[in-house]
Automatic annotation (TrEMBL):
Gene name of the encoded protein: nadX
EC code: 1.4.1.21
Name the UniProt record assigns to this protein: L-aspartate dehydrogenase
Organism, scientific name: Verticiella sediminum
Record key words, sorted: NAD, NADP, Oxidoreductase, Pyridine nucleotide biosynthesis
Record-linked PANTHER family: ASPARTATE DEHYDROGENASE DOMAIN-CONTAINING PROTEIN, L-ASPARTATE DEHYDROGENASE-RELATED
Binding site for NAD(+): 124, 190
Additional record remark: The iminoaspartate product is unstable in aqueous solution and can decompose to oxaloacetate and ammonia.
Domain Aspartate/homoserine dehydrogenase NAD-binding: start-end pairs: 8-119
Pathway named in the protein's UniProt entry: Cofactor biosynthesis; NAD(+) biosynthesis; iminoaspartate from L-aspartate (dehydrogenase route): step 1/1
């Protein structure tokens, strides 16, 4: 039985727990959310056959086999770093947090000290295997374009640049490096950071973000060129009803990572 703890109880975490509920080989024993989110989390989890306990932090004595972050950038330093130091294996989806200088090194050091490992999940994007393999031969150019409907950019710096609800044509709301994108759009540019960390790095990866009234999906486009050759990838992700910023593939990416931990043969 794989014993799992989950950080966050929002759109991704709730769907993940629904997907795992009732499995004989995996148990989600605890969920970690901030103090002001405890009641809402307990209410959201009440419908599960086996509702996990809700806490504000991993208990000192808790030794889950896997700690799963699906909460947001702040959760990495707050919960993932100490868990790694304590020897608990972690997987994370808020990859954009690693745009903060030094955080990737701190995660690696904490995992090394704890004799464990932290895995950055592919989340809403595919092709990370090809990009990371291509990097070993040398990459010349990686360009990422993220395109979402205007309402998915509400609450971001895009809302200061234009009236999102009145857009009639595709509008570029950001152009720059993956590091800048991930820092400025913590809920919308984790994919930019994932592509950068797998490929050319946070400075050299070129990012464009677009608010497009002509799409209903979250559209991710990657173009990569290097010694291996080149590839182009377009993903049209269905947004989660509970959070239009987040593509449903992110949920399946987390589920895959957890199920693989419990499996003897993985793909
Ligand atoms: N890698 C990828 O492709 C993607 C990554 N993400 C990341 O996943 C995060 C979560 O996404 P959703 O579930 O859609 O968001 P959401 O807003 O629906 O849920 C976030 C949950 O995390 C909790 N939370 C926030 N800060 C926390 C902290 N410091 N400690 C513990 N709990 C905390 C909130 O109370 C809430 O329950 C996003 O903020 C984003 O950073 C989202 C989409 C794609
Ligand atoms: O779920 C998505 O489509 C991607 C996303 O929000 C992100 O990159 O942060």
């Amino acid at each position: 039985m794989l014993n799992v703890a989950i950080i966050g109880c929002g759109a991704i975490a709730q769907s993940v727990m629904q997907g795992l509920d009732g499995r004989a080989d995996i148990a989600v024993a605890s969920v970690i959310v901030p103090a002001d989110g405890q009641t809402a989390a307990r209410e959201a989890l009440a419908a599960l056959a086996h509702p996990p306990a809700v806490h504000t932090a991993l208990a000192q004595a808790a030794r889950p086999d896997l700690l799963v972050e699906c909460a947001g950038h702040g959760a990495i330093a707050e919960h993932v770093l100490p868990a790694l130091e304590a020897g608990i294996a972690c997987v994370v989806v808020s990859i954009g947090a690693l745009s903060e200088p030094g955080l990737a090194e701190r995660l690696a050091d904490a995992a090394a000290r704890g004799h464990t490992r932290v895995e950055l999940l592919s989340g809403a994007i595919g092709g990370i295997d090809a990009l990371a393999a291509g990097r070993l031969g040398g990459l010349d150019e990686v360009v990422y374009t993220g395109r979402k409907p205007p309402h998915a950019w509400q609450g971001t710096p895009a809302a200061e640049r234009c009236v999102l609800a009145e857009l009639t044509e595709a509008t570029e709301i950001f152009a720059g490096s993956a590091r800048e994108a991930a820092a400025a759009f913590p809920k919308n540019a984790n994919v930019a950071a994932t592509i950068a960390l797998a490929g050319l790095g946070l400075e050299a990866t070129t990012v464009r973000l677009i608010a497009d009234p002509g799409v209903t999906d979250n559209v991710h486009h990657v173009r990569a060129r290097g010694a291996f050759g080149e590839f182009e990838l377009t993903m049209r992700g269905k947004p989660l009803a509970s959070n239009p910023k987040t593509s449903s593939l992110t949920v399946y990416s987390v589920l895959r990572a957890i199920v693989n931990r419990a499996a003897a043969l993985v793909i």
